[in-house]
Amino acid sequence: MSKFKKILFEKLENNIPRENLNALPNGFQQIGNKAIINLKPEVLTYQNEISNIILENFSAIKGVYLKKGGISGNFRVPDLEYIRGERDPIIQHKEHGIIFKFDMTKIMFAKGNINERLRFKKIVKEDEIIFDLFSGIGYFSLIIAKYCKPKIIYSFELNPVSFEFLTENIKLNKINDKRLIIRPIFGDSNQEMLKIKDKADRVIMGIIPAPKSHLSNVFKILNEDHGIIHYEGLLNDRMSPNILLNDVLKHANEVGRECKLLKANKVKSYGPKVNHVTLDIEIN
């Protein structure tokens, strides 16, 4: 039993029917100074009591939200409901020395992708030209800009809310103070990337489901000699990464390029027997 669940047991064992005690949550997700709790139906009516216990026992938490459902829509909006404490949904979450500011009720922040974001700090080379096709609030662009000394990052974002926070996060982290490192571009990356004169050394296609529709244009903007594509999607436990690789291979063959899978990386579990997977693919 987790430490958090033990606290809930001690505080609520006289208030909740014994048969429902095991339905109490094992923990909560912390983003910035807010907690997000996911409650089973048996204990949903005790959301106020559970929230008060969190606020009383965890000083870093200033407000509590309930996760009501999954993400929805093309912009992957979370379904959250305010319960207790500070209500302001705009938070600043710090990770790997980067400050991410965003509205947690309008923008999904996947903490489960933390190791994937950190991985880019280690693999990006100095002076690279990078196209981040689905940059969001700067999940990958900011960490690359801060630690990897790229020549430039073109950060594309279609969601106007995310784009607003992307531009704010660039300023907040002082990324462009000395020179232009991140150029934020609002609009559909499948069209906007073709307007850039530079050719990409590295293309980050950080969205699920797999963005097949963008691959044709990606090969048009990729460095003609050598480039890296980061392509991702969902695979069940028995599926080979080659299923995703074949998406890229098809377009490579059409334009006479060669593909080499450098690494297949499991980002996180996405559902029962379903994994979120990223492929690092070398194009020659």
CATH level-4 homologous superfamily of the largest domain: Vaccinia Virus protein VP39
Helix/strand order, N-terminal first = HEEHEEEEHEHEHEHEHEHEE
The largest sheet is: 7 strands, mixed
Low-pLDDT stretches are none
User: How many H/I helices?
Assistant: 8
Strands, count: 13
Portion of residues within helices: 25-40%
Shape-level CATH architecture of the largest domain: 3-Layer(aba) Sandwich
Give the CA-based shape.
globular
Pick out its properties:
GMP Synthetase, Chain A, domain 3, 4-stranded mixed β-sheet, single chain, 7-stranded mixed β-sheet, 13 strands, 2 domains, alpha/beta, 284 residues, Rossmann fold
Question: Your description of this structure?
Answer:
It is built from eight helices and 13 strands. 26% of the residues lie in helices and 32% in strands. It folds into two domains: 3-88, GMP Synthetase, Chain A, domain 3 (2-Layer Sandwich), CATH 3.30.300; 109-283, Rossmann fold (3-Layer(aba) Sandwich). By secondary structure, it is α/β, with parallel strands linked by helices. The protein has a seven-stranded mixed sheet with strand order 9-8-7-10-11-13-12. It has a four-stranded mixed sheet with strand order 1-2-3-4. Strands 5-6 form a two-stranded antiparallel sheet. It has helices spanning 3-12, 47-57, 114-123, 141-147, 160-172, 189-192, 215-221, 242-254; strands at residues 29-31, 34-37, 63-72, 77-85, 90-95, 98-103, 129-132, 152-157, 182-186, 202-205, 227-236, 259-271, 274-283.
